[in-house]
Amino acid sequence: MSTQQNSQVQDYGDNPTAVRDSDHYQAEYIQNFVEKWDDLINWHARAQSEGYFFIETLKQHGAQRVLDAAAGTGFHSIRLLEAGFDVASADGSMEMLVKAFENATRQQKLLRTVLADWRWLTRDIQEKFDAAICLGNSFTHLFSEQDRRKALAEFYAVLNHDGVLILDQRNYDSILDNGFSSKHTYYYCGDNVKAEPEFVDGGLARFRYKFPDKSAYHLNMYPLRKEYTRRLLYEVGFQEVTTYGDFQETYHQDDPDFYIHVAKKA
Ligand SMILES: C[S@@+](CC[C@H](N)C(=O)[O-])C[C@H]1O[C@@H](n2cnc3c(N)ncnc32)[C@H](O)[C@@H]1O
Predict the structure, then answer these.
(1) Does the beta carbon of 75 lie inside 6 Å of ligand 1?
(2) Which domain does 73 fall in, by range?
(3) Residues 164, 263: contact at Cβ < 8 Å?
(4) Is 114 contained in some domain?
(5) Is 211 exposed, middle or buried (0-12, 13-18, 19+ CB in 10 A)?
């Protein structure tokens, strides 16, 4: 793990837009930023905006055992536990998992946490699941196609034969083709918190997250095009991929802020 992991300052070096590395998330989710993450997403507003989409989709697919592969601060893990699912919560960031565990304890829930990088998931997780979720625009942290294929193949491997993967992403097509705009309705719902791109090219979307106390943090992400992600999902073996735009089945290409891919293994 990176030695910068416990640093209190994000370190992008002299040339931040040159940082295009799948391992760098370790140095991005520093303690101070993790402490602010829940202000950024605003649990209550986020729960209202996404409604029961994930819970209903998982139920439709008959899922009971769910792996939250990008648990973050635990938003979806805790919602799914409350809805009666059997949940394991994985993340590659220890800071995130500690925060998720604390958040769950405060809500009288015991989170089953696993520190695991998606690219080597089956090294740390030997169980099988009916569903895996990778939500909150997390998959965008992988910068090479090899890493993306490896992670998707690992998600595929932890699923039972008729399992389902739910993976979401920003609508980067719209950002790359038309520039950034956001309804500020989904995902990052916090009041007075701004999530905006600072730099975008075909290989990098560098977002700045500004908080009311004037603190600012960054995430360097890979701008995944929708059809590219869908193609990778099919190529690693998923048989049917349905893509929703801001939780709707029908949408105009440029409109959604986020896409949600529901990929069936069998
Ligand atoms: C944008 S946050 C989303 C967190 C949470 N799902 C949410 O929606 O609030 C991305 C998460 O993915 C995790 N992550 C990024 N790359 C990873 C990798 N290669 N393996 C495991 N976790 C990773 C980060 O540590 C972080 O918790």
Answers:
(1) yes
(2) 14-264
(3) yes
(4) yes
(5) middle
HSE (CB half, 13 Å, CA atoms) of 151? 27
Residue 165 CA to ligand 1 center (angstroms) comes to: 15
Could you write out the three-class secondary structure of 30-71?
Answer: CHHHHHHHHHHHCHHHHHHHHCCHHHHHHHHCCCCEEEECCC
pLDDT tens string 50-108: 999 999 999 999 999 999 999 999 999 999 999 999 999 999 999 999 999 999 999 99
Spatial separation of the C-alpha atoms in residues 154 and 152, rounded to whole Å = 5
Q: Which of 255, 192, 187 is nearest to 219 (CA)?
A: 187
Indicate the residue type of 116: A
* Arithmetic mean of pLDDT, 9-34: 91
Q: What is the pLDDT of residue 4?
A: 42
Domain count, the chain: 1
Look up tokens 């992008």; give the residue: 12
CA pair distance 259, 187, nearest whole angstrom: 11
Predicted TM-score (pTM) of this structure: 0.94
The ligand 1 atom at the shortest distance from the C-alpha of residue 95 is 25
- The mean pLDDT of the chain is 92
The size of the chain, in residues, is: 266
We report the CATH number of the domain holding residue 158 as 3.40.50.150
With residues binned 3-state (H G I as helix, E B as strand, rest as coil), the percentages for the chain, rounded to 5, are 40, 25, 35
Q: Is 168 in the pocket of ligand 1 (CB under 6 A)?
A: no
Going from the Cα of 92 to the center of ligand 1, the distance in angstroms, rounded, reads 7
Q: Which residue CA neighbors atom 23 of ligand 1 most closely?
A: 92
CA distance 187 to 15: 29
